[in-house]
Amino acid sequence: MSRLAPLELDHIEDPALRDLTAQCVDLGVPDELFPRIIARVPAQARNLLGVMLELHTNGTVDHQLKEIIRIQLARFVDDPYFSALRSKRAIAEGLTEERIDAGCGDYEDSELFTEAERMALRFADQLFLDPDKVDKIFYDQMREFWTDAQIMEIGTFLAIYHGAHLFMKTLDARPLAAA
Prior knowledge:
Layout: H1 15-27, H2 33-38, H3 42-57, H4 63-76, H5 80-84, H6 88-92, H7 97-103, H8 115-129, H9 136-142, H10 148-170
């Protein structure tokens, strides 16, 4: 299942952490595996899961777009865990695998995205592939479509989820449904 054994749910004594784990399962990202792995340090797990859920479910950037970006980053690092997970909310809102694949592929020429969405996807891939290209000119271009608060929302989302993807890849973790 993983190179680092997750705690059993009944071994997570912290009620706030159990609640956050349930929220993750309700969203579908992450499933309960990630919270059960990081639960060994409850205070950090509470904070990290709280931030992840806040970034993914709240704010003014579209949830479907954030879900596509999350999967794009997971695929960049070949993380089988986060690549396979899907936000139940994004799917309920109409997100399709076709749109996910387009966002993870040649989104620049896809009619499935607005120019603002393409800019956000470009931000995600450039932060991963060539962060030196994310310079003043790039941010000025971002501001044509996104407010500074939205740019920070996307940037923080990228930073948190990218780190989680890298960590889970090192653990060789797989979603529980696929285990």
